[in-house]
Amino acid sequence: MTNRRLAFVGLGADTTSACLSMLKIMDGRSSVGWTQSEPDDADVLFVAHDGGANRKHWENGDKPCVVVYHNTEARPAARYTLPHPFRVMQLIGVLEDISSALGDTASATRAKAPADKPQDETFGHSLKNLLEAPANDDSLYRSRGAQGHLYVAPASGCYYIDPGLHQQLRSKDLSLSALEEVNDPISNQLARRPIFELAWFTAQHAHEALAPWLAPAGQFKLKRWPNFGTVRSDRVYLSLCALLTRQACGREQLLEHAQCNAGQLDRFLSACSMSNLLISDSNAPAPAPQVTNVNENGRFGSLIRGLRSRLGLSS
Amino acid sequence: MDTIASNEFKILFTGPMGAGKTTAISAISDQAAVSTDVINTDLDQCEKELTTAALDYGQIALPDGSCVRLYGTPGQERFRFMWPILMKNAAGVIVLLNGEHQELEQHLEHFVQAFGEGRTLPMVVGVGRLPEDDHSRLERLAMKLEQRGIALPIFDADVRKHDDVLLLVDALLCLIEANDTGRMEA
């Protein structure tokens, strides 16, 4: 077993205590053993988002830093982040990512997906990691599949793809390898597309159920809308977005509001999360306001129905 | 807010000169938009010869006898006094922007703020003519709003395309419905 040390910088006592308790739960379940140490001796640091200069000092060092932020705040621009309060699975997830980056080859925990998971999940996971990394990554990454290659350039917010492969990406799940850094020249034949679109379609088609990093019993809220000008969608998604920018909701409330099926909702939430548009609170939901489904009469109910009918907008 | 007739529904289109307000209204109005054009005196902002002075107007008659009224605000700053007049009793507002204009971000800030940031009225933003080689421009606009705690629908939209105008309208209707839901709960 590999032993690693972690330290807490600027975190509240409750956060530190929660983290240490969870490490005890993880003890023996992972091939990496984690113990607490002083920051100077640690391999990994957990730093407070509001740590100011102290945070900057440690982030500028060569040790992986997990920035811990409150889940009511927007996710900070850092490679590793952890919303507080967090669950053990979230802690395991971030420590797994760091273990991999540190080269702990046998770092799989019991909670990690099996080694024979489909190739597309590996691609999705690598894409998610890339999107969560700092935006100034000017490297180029490639993924290979039977149908061709695609390249991701995070710094420019775009990806490059063969037009034929692009059509397939929009309509179905593609079997693609995990992204790897390359120095290839980009062919003029490849179409340049927004990276948001790649994240959206990857999550849309890859997840039959809710993405594994999202808690089914959690509360969700949108930070920004997806660009439906690029990723065309139906009314259900527009309706879900409208409600999720107004208030945080659980899955049951969203199903009631949009009158959609669970699979459709889960694909939507997964795609929003992958595209970094979603705030999710994995804790047990607090009592939330009732949500009325949109077909019931509101102030403008009949006028809106009449207008949609008149404009030929699908119901 | 003043009461609105139960069989009327008013949607506002706003944005700077040349963003496509008249075109968008004409795309969904029963008849071509009625415009109150004057000679454009601000050629630095937009090179078109004529621009809207007071308002653009279009309407959609519904089968039950009710009516959806579509108003376009004048884009020039000198006619700004018309904005609150047109805003009165509106159900929602669609902000249209020209994506290739150098002052795109300022225009976004200006019009979103002037029409209540989506807090007083449901608001949707459509950005046209975005450069093909700059896919991050729209995201930067959305993030700029996000930094101020504003989460508005912001889509690339070519108002010469009927479907793009419909997308903006449909998103606005969904926002109005979500707001209506909130009012019913209150």
Describe the protein.
The complex is a heterodimer of chains A (315) and B (186). Chain A is an alpha/beta fold and 315 residues long. Chain A folds into 3 domains: 2-102, 3-Layer(aba) Sandwich (Rossmann fold), CATH 3.40.50; 119-200, no CATH class; 207-315, Arc Repressor Mutant, subunit A, CATH 1.10.10. In chain A, 37% of the residues lie in helices and 19% in strands. Chain A contains 10 helices and 12 strands. Chain A has helices at residues 13-26, 53-59, 88-102, 119-132, 163-171, 195-206, 235-246, 251-258, 262-274, 301-311; strands at residues 2-9, 32-36, 44-48, 65-70, 80-84, 140-145, 148-153, 158-161, 180-182, 191-194, 219-222, 278-281. Chain A has a 5-stranded parallel sheet with strand order 2-1-3-4-5, sandwiched between helices. A 5-stranded antiparallel sheet of chain A has the order 9-6-7-8-10. Chain A has a two-stranded antiparallel ribbon with strand order 11-12. Mean pLDDT of chain A is 81; it is low at 105-121. Chain B is an alpha/beta fold. Chain B folds into 2 domains: 18-89, no CATH class; 91-186, 3-Layer(aba) Sandwich (Rossmann fold), CATH 3.40.50. Chain B is 32% helix and 25% strand. Chain B has helices at residues 21-28, 82-87, 104-114, 137-147, 162-185; strands spanning 8-14, 34-39, 50-61, 67-72, 92-98, 123-128, 154-156. A 7-stranded mixed sheet of chain B has the order 2-3-4-1-5-6-7, sandwiched between helices. The longest helix of chain B is centred in the last third of the chain and has 24 residues, at 162-185. The radius of gyration of chain B is 16 Å and the shape is globular. At the A-B interface, strand 10, helix 7 and helix 10 of A face helix 4, strand 7 and helix 5 of B.
